[in-house]
Specification:
With 134 residues, the protein is of the alpha/beta class. Helix content is 49%, strand content 19%. The protein contains 4 helices and 6 strands, in the order βαββαββααβ. The strands form 2 sheets. A 4-stranded mixed beta sheet has the order 4-5-1-6, with helices on one face. A two-stranded antiparallel ribbon has the order 2-3. The protein is elongated, with a radius of gyration of 18 Å.
Length: 134
């Protein structure tokens, strides 16, 4: 799982052919079996995003401004965008950006095991690497 702040993504529309064989391949690729349920990739990304928002609300008192989850083959990318809290804004005004970064780094280190658990439980795969940037 990779958390990267302020990254914009663009998804090009997928053209579907009327060929039955191609249509079934596309459909099969979009379904991910989890706990014996056939979930669409959209359902799976929504589950992961909702659980991550819930975790942040529980621990920080509010959720992130924006969450986006992408799944591509064996890679799950979670993008969180968060505004500074009132305390963090005050620290930045006082020239204490390093204190804000240290606090956020400590928070990410603390929640990393729970974030891993959310992704592993929903994908039924092991998270091999966790990267936090920002």
């Amino acid at each position: 799982m990779v958390a990267v702040p302020d990254v914009r993504t663009h998804t090009a529309p997928v053209k579907r052919r009327t060929d039955e064989r191609l249509e079934s391949v596309i459909t099969a690729a979009q379904e991910v079996p989890v706990n014996n349920e056939a979930l669409t990739q959209r359902d799976l990304t929504s589950r992961i995003a909702n659980e991550i928002v819930g975790l942040h609300k529980r621990l920080r008192g509010r959720g992130p401004n924006h969450v986006r989850v992408h799944i591509h083959d064996d890679l799950v990318t979670v993008i969180l965008r968060e505004d500074l809290s009132p305390l963090e804004r005050a620290l930045v005004r006082e020239g204490r950006e390093a204190a804000v970064r240290d606090q956020r780094d400590a928070y990410e280190a603390m929640v990393a095991p729970e974030l891993r658990t959310i992704v592993e439980a929903n994908t039924e795969r092991t998270v091999e690497a966790f990267v936090h940037a920002g």
